[in-house]
Write a structure and sequence with these properties.
The complex is a heterodimer. By secondary structure, chain A is an all-alpha fold. Chain A contains 11 helices and no strands. Chain A is globular and about 55 Å long. Chain B has one domain: Up-down Bundle (Ferritin). Chain B has 13 helices and 2 strands, in the order H-H-H-H-H-H-H-H-H-H-E-E-H-H-H. Classes of the chains: A mainly alpha, B mainly alpha. Chains A and B meet through helix 1, helix 2, helix 3, helix 6 and helix 7 of A and helix 3, helix 4, helix 7, helix 12 and helix 13 of B.
């Protein structure tokens, strides 16, 4: 097996950690505003899990980077072009349906990739995956149930969920793109090439959408640029503006 | 304590002679510290007062998410963000727990929420104050949860079983929040000059609202007597307030912050801190709806509920379809 290229490993870890950081932030925006108290609890819980996973991924990323930085430095002191999350995670919450659809499309991906990462040649990666997969198993069950419940609910909830799927589906493809970083990770046995995960993902998503009576858009375009950092959406900058504000306004403080 | 100015549903305390046989038995149980349980007989006014108190307490937990949620997206570190998310999740859980306790008295959560949204039920006035800087989040945990604990520890001995048991559980989590809040404000008070300035500002703004959480002075607290006799309330407003002030003043001093009230002074004779009377006009203004955030807080909650209607309808419709399909299959 090829030796692990540390630069590529860092990129891979940033992709994992930025996904959970940015989505965790988005989900946390719901605090106190969800349709029912149980959902407030569930959304806070999901956000909390995602932030917890971020601490692990970015903590390891900082270690691999070897510049004496912390997970917090990576989260709060990089600008948008250095973020490596997929575009899906930075899209605005929209209504509750859009939030839960986005959550499911991401949870499904996480459940597939984390299962593979359990066998990663990198033991830190496999340990993080072992912890995260327990949380994600619950997340995907809940988001799938909600997508089914709302898709197969009333006429209004159905049409809102279909609109959410139509809006979000073009962002799904990016999670399965492959580049040199992915090739290096696959060669070193750290993480399988994302293209090899698509079949399992599609099977899961198709099943849930069928139960939800929702139609997956045919020939959807693939928006990309998040995981390479080449071109994020306009939304990420605003998210970072709030997230990083204290660290930027009062640099070097302890909190 | 997230319940203030709960109007006891009755005008005066009945003497033993005035009580019916049932009322006497009920009062004996209370006097002997035997908990009242949902299926036990209880006076209608006892039931109504408790519903008001637990409902207001539950609403406070739910509305209390908003001032803290105001900073979740701006929390300065991943750890602080996680701690705040966990806290807010706990608060929502307390709300759920208290609504369930109120349901044991025959009042549904939906009905209580409707009364809140129509402005006919209240939540603690403290949540009508804004959180303006990061130190406020520490101060909310330390002072607001701290004040709540003083009250809720006492309420563990309240006469209604489900409420008392809810308090036992809630107190454990609140103590944790108060410690985390104090830790957060310590970092600020011992940090850079700007951080310390934020900490001082937080204490200055939140001190009086926090001590007003205990409600008006005993002399002006017209609703207390019956609630005390029924042990819905266990200690008087003034006793609880003094206890809170006595435990909190040394904590402010430890932080090296200026005391937020020039009237705070150790009174050797009383063995307690003296303090200035809060501005009770402000308290009643906030209760009446004129606090800095009343309108926005309620608007947020009503909007969340209204905008969520399609979600609740959708999920109900799906559940009904599933149930019907199951029956058809049998």
């Amino acid at each position: 097996m090829a030796e692990v290229d540390q630069k590529a490993l860092l990129q891979f870890l940033l992709r994992m950690g930025d996904n959970t950081l940015v989505l965790g932030h988005r989900v946390s925006e719901w605090c106190g505003h969800s349709p029912i108290l149980e959902e407030d609890i569930a959304l806070a819980n999901t956000a909390l899990d995602l932030i917890g996973q971020t601490q692990l991924w970015l903590g390891y990323a900082a270690e691999v980077q070897g510049e004496g930085k912390s997970a917090d430095d990576l989260a709060f002191l990089r600008d948008a072009w250095d973020f490596r999350n997929v575009l899906l995670t930075e899209l605005p919450n929209g209504d509750f349906g859009q939030t839960m659809m986005r959550q499911f499309l991401f949870d499904a991906f996480q459940s597939v990739i984390l299962a593979r990462l359990l066998k990663s040649s990198d033991t830190t990666v496999s340990e993080i995956a072992a912890k995260a997969i327990k949380e994600v198993a619950y997340h995907v069950e809940r988001s799938a149930d909600t997508v089914v419940g709302l898709g197969d609910g009333t006429e209004e909830s159905h049409s809102r969920m279909q609109a959410a799927l139509d809006y979000l589906y073009p962002y799904v493809g990016e999670m399965f793109l492959s580049d040199d970083v992915d090739a290096a990770m696959a060669a070193a046995g750290v993480c399988p090439d994302p293209t090899t995960l698509r079949e399992e993902y599609d099977a899961l998503v198709s099943k849930v959408m069928a139960n939800a009576t929702l139609a997956i858009p045919a020939n959807a375009y693939t928006h990309k640029g998040g995981r390479t950092g080449y071109m994020h959406t306009e939304h990420l900058g605003h998210l970072l503006t709030s997230m990083q504000w204290l660290q930027r306004a009062y640099p070097g403080c302890e909190w | 304590m997230y319940a203030q100015l709960i109007k006891t549903a009755r005008s005066g305390i009945k003497s033993r002679e005035e009580m019916s046989e049932q009322e006497r038995e009920f009062q004996d149980k209370i006097d002997n510290d035997i908990k009242i349980e949902p299926r036990d007989w209880m006076p209608d006014d006892y039931r109504r007062t408790l519903i008001r108190q637990m409902g207001q307490h539950a609403h406070s937990e739910v509305v209390g998410q908003l001032p803290e949620g105001n900073w979740i997206t701006r929390a300065p570190t991943l750890e602080r963000k996680a701690i705040l998310l966990a806290k807010v999740q706990d608060e929502a859980g307390h709300g759920l727990y208290l609504y369930s306790a109120a349901e044991t008295l025959g009042e549904s959560r939906d009905e209580l929420v409707r009364l809140l949204h129509e402005g006919r039920m209240k939540y603690s006035s403290i949540f009508n104050y804004p959180t303006l800087n990061w130190a406020d989040i520490g101060a909310v945990g330390w002072l607001v949860d701290g004040a709540a604990i003083v009250n809720q520890v006492a309420l563990q001995r309240t006469s209604y079983g489900p409420y008392s048991r809810a308090m036992v559980r809630i107190c454990k989590e609140e103590s944790f929040h108060a410690r985390q809040g104090y830790h957060a404000i310590m970092k600020m008070a011992f940090g850079s000059p700007e951080q310390k300035r934020q900490a001082q500002s937080a204490v200055d703004r939140l001190w009086f609202p926090a001590i007003m959480m205990f409600g008006p002075t005993d002399a002006d607290s017209t609703n207390s007597d019956q609630s005390m006799a029924w042990k819905i309330k266990v200690k008087s407003n003034d006793e609880l307030r003094q206890q809170f002030i006595d435990q909190t003043v040394p904590q402010i001093e430890y932080l090296g912050l200026d005391l937020p009230d020039p009237g705070i002074k150790w009174n050797e004779e009383r063995g307690h801190y003296d303090f200035s009377d809060p501005d009770w006009t402000e308290f009643f203004d906030v209760i009446k709806g004129n606090g800095p955030c009343n309108t926005d807080r309620l608007k947020d909650r009503v909007a969340a509920w209204d905008e969520g209607q399609w979600v609740r309808d959708g999920l109900m419709a799906h559940a009904e379809k599933k149930a019907a399909a199951k029956i058809a299959a049998e």
